[in-house]
Amino acid sequence: MVVLDATIVNIALPEAQVALGISDADRQWMVTAYALPFGALLLLGGRVADFLGRKRILLIALTGFALASALAGFAHTGLLLFTGRALQGVFAAMLAPAALSLITVTFTEERERAKAFAVFGAIAGGGAAVGLLLGGLLTEWFSWRWCLFVNIPIAAIALFFGWRVLKESRIHGGTHYDLPGALLATGGLGALVWACTQPAEHGWGSVNTLGWMAAAVLLLVAFVVVELKSSSPLLPMRILANRNRAGAYLVGLLVGAGLFAVFLFLTYYLQGILQYTPIQAGFAFLPFSAGVIVGAGVGSQLTIRIGPRIVVPAGTVLGLIGLAWLSQITPETTYFGTILPAQLLISVGMGFIFMSTTNLALVGVSNDDAGVASAVVNTVQQVGGSVGTALLNTIAATATATYLAANPPTEQTPEAIGRLQAAAAVDGFGSAFVWAAVIFGLATVAALVLINAGKHQVAEVSAPAGHAL
Question: Which pTM value belongs to this model?
Fold first, then answer.
């Protein structure tokens, strides 16, 4: 359900935007409102589950997620929809670590635990693909609202069996929640995302943009200071001291920033420009999931043989090439000629990166920090995705508006105006893809400079690490 909701709404976005009168500058909140609290509160959610009881938090989070889905599904304004999505993200931040912890403590025998993690990984990996297909089916056959309502029966079934089958487990002893750290991190990241949305209306050098950017910097600096002084920090700064781990996090942050918006813009391109139905758009994204699976399989073998210091930058370069290819799209571009091959390049590269960075996060880490070091991989991907989506959507909306201002219609017929609007929208998408490629270029530099772990160091990692969300 957590992974499903990261992708299911993508296909529904165009119809939801029209139904609720959401502007192009604000459409990204459908994605960002979920990813931002999910990423920012993930570490806190894990600690709350550990101390208050994993079963209890799982059941509470399931209930909250279902209610938030209902709120978003019944929304009659964009603000109410975004509020529901944000609450989904809050409860997802408790749901994901509680579910993973329960698997760990329920299956104590090594072979059974390996099977359980394999099932968990398969469901998490397939959730994205299922979300895209299900989003298309529900949007076309029923309504975009059912992409949110679908969580309610899933949560009800999970609640019933969770209450009857699961046993409670928790950590005993003193509890300390780094609430100041959580509030500063969430506030700082929220201010950063909001700052990235301001240029579409006020300009890049405006007081609004620079003021919110300054607020974000101050809050995030305060977060670092609090973490350094806290006796039980949300993010122990010592885990960043290892250059390979720091490199894995930085690459994950940048890749998330460049990748999340790809689905947003391709959804609008497929449905708005190529006139795909929601179901056709869902099927059009399936090769991406297949590419990630292939990339992860090949990447795991390459990591064993040559090490992540080569595999990770190879993955970012594949992503960069695919994004550069997408930046060349026009209203006449075909799916099989450009969209499909570019998707496959990016997705195989992502398979390389996701597998390698998750393992790198555990290189040389102590047992006490293994859980948080692995969880930060998911956190930086979600945080990067939320900030990157806001930034790239603003770039796309600004480029579209600039194109329209510079190219007034020569005829006032509906057909001529439609062609102009399509060309302007595609120009905006292309600009966003260019900047996404630049972000992947930065990720490549970060990988080459920071990651130097060889195959022997990764081979020493024995903890299960295949739970990237």
Answer: 0.82
